[in-house]
Each structure stands twice: as structure tokens, then as C-alpha cells.
Amino acid sequence: MTMNESExxxxxxxxxxxxxDRLKEAGQILKSEKAPKDPxxxxxxxxxxxxxxxxxxxxxxxHRDPLFPTLRCGAHETIKLGADNPDNRYESxxxxxxxxxxxxxxxxxxxxxxxxxxxNRYSIDGTMRTTGFVDSRDLEIHDDGTFELILSQKKQDGxxxxxxxxxNSVNVRQTFQDRKNEVPAELxxxxxxxxxxxxxxxxxxxxxxxxxxxxxxxxRTAKLFENWSESFLPNLNTxxxxxxxxxxxxxxxxxxxxxxxxxxxxxxxALVIDAKVIPECQTWNFQLxxxxxxxxxxxxxxxxxxxxxxxxxxxxxxxVVISHADPGHKNWIETAGHKEGTMCWRWIGAEDxxxxxxxxxxxxxxxxx
Length: 369
Description:
This protein is α+β, with helices and mostly antiparallel strands. It has 6 helices and 17 strands. The chain has 2 domains: 5-191, Jelly Rolls; 236-368, Domain of unknown function DUF1214, C-terminal domain (Jelly Rolls).
């Protein structure tokens, strides 16, 4: 029997060997000139690569069939990337523009629900262009909280999400104000017309393609965000507006205005961030990340604050204090054992995007203020 190229690569082990070689090569990103080289940061960096690998294998090997898509959570408590929002639940599915799809389920009570079709090229050039977007305010939802949304290139009556000839993925983003008490949306996706069909068994081509896609995702994603962290250093310990067009290019939510930067604090220092004006908005939040742009462990540490959890000053402003030791401030953000990293502030659903003031102060001086 004559084997095709993928069959030969699988049988003789070339597909696996190349996967392993490229995974080893991806580790060189941790040696980047400006990346921290201390054992703690390097350990987090290697764990970060392992997390990207888990996400890549799930995305490119386990859940890659656009004929039978599944909404999978690609960033969560133990898979983190790109300043993942601790208030969010992220889901995505592979789709193909020549087919029509249906997303259905319950709206829940989560504060914000946005659904977008995209041209996902993260593993190619780090971009993710939006081709259609709706949030729950645009949807017709039944009295019992259920709804259906059709994804297609041709406009549909009722709830419709556009696709174009390049669309290859759909992203669902849920943002909680109070994750403990809000009910998440429970959604599923299906290709219209696939009710009587079944997926094909794994093929050598799918395995070969999946391994290549996963390891490409690891290398290019790690490089993308390490480069981004380095670009923040000129604005260390300040929070200027990010390049909003670039944020959208790599998958940012169209309803969000982003502030990104880097931080570094000595043991006796605190970073004080003042939002003098809080705009009318659906929500806002601030989070602390490590160098690799992973949100810090929000399961066990207070590393973020949002519109619902924040303590407000009498004039409606907000002060956030970042420090290693607890300063006794109600909006204290823990560094969770980190001495440096990145950070992000978001205005979500706001028409105005006021700036932020920041300063580094000795912790002892802050306590005397």
C-alpha cells in the first residue's frame, strides 16, 4: 500500500520528532534579552509554555473540526495568555464560512455577553480580525432566557451574526461583575444540517496538521506577548492607553478600551493608581499580570478589582494600591510573590476613556498619608 506524505510522517515518527524539536526551540523565548532571568520567573515561563501547549493541543487537535464544532474554554485558571481577564469566561469554536451555524442556549445573568466571528491567524501572524460582532443587548431573548443565534454569510431574520469568506472561528466572551452569584450563559454550537452526520475518525493528516498547529501556536504566541511585555518597559509603572487598533487586531473586544503597561516594585514600595473620573460604562476592571502576561492566580490572591468589587472614594473616584505587603487599603492588589510583571486596565462599554494617574511611593510614606 502506498502511503501519502502525512501517513509516512506519522509511521516513521517524523511528525512527532519535528513537533518535539519545535517545542524545544520555543523555549528560547525565555532567554530573550529583557525577560527576567531569576529562577522564579523562569519557572513561571516554562509553566507558561506548558499551558500554551495544553491549549494548543486542545484547539488544534481535539477541537479543530469545523464540521462538528464545540465551544471550548481556551483561557481559564490554569491556561493563561495575553492578559486574560479574571472576570471573563472565554470560549471559541472552529467554523468554516461555507457553512451556516447555530448557537443556542440560555443567556444567564452574567453582566456582559459578547459573541464575535473572527479570522483567527494567531498561529500564523498573531492577528484575530473581527468579521461580525453582537452582544446580548443586540439579541432577541425569550422570556425563559433562551435564544438562538445564526452565524452565516447571508443575512438572516432574527438574531444573526455575520461571517465573511475568511471567517474561521467564533469567540464568546462572558464578563462577570460578581462571579460567585451571577449565572453564566450556557451555550452550544452546531453546524446547521449536520443532525444525522457523525465525525470522521482521526486521520494521519489530522494528527500531523494538529501537532504542527499546536507547536506553532506555542512558539508564536509566546513570542508575541514577550515582545509586547518588552514594549511596555519605557512606560514602567504608568498606565498609558494601549494602541487600540493593535488590541483589536490581536483579538480584543470592540467594546473595550485598554490600558497596558509594565510594573516593578521593591519590597518597600507601592504603586498607587488613581482613576479620578469613572466614566459611564457597563463595567471596568484592573488586573496584575506576570512578565509573560498571565493574570496572577486570582483563585487565591486579590490580584484584580472591578466596578462591582471596588471601594469608591466620596467623590466617585477610585484608588488602587499595588504592593507586596498589605497596606490596609480596601483596593489592595497583591503581587502574589512577584517583583515585576505587566498590568491592564479596561473601560468596557464606555463612550469616554479618561486617563489614569500613577506614582510609586515608599510603602511607609503611603501608610502615613
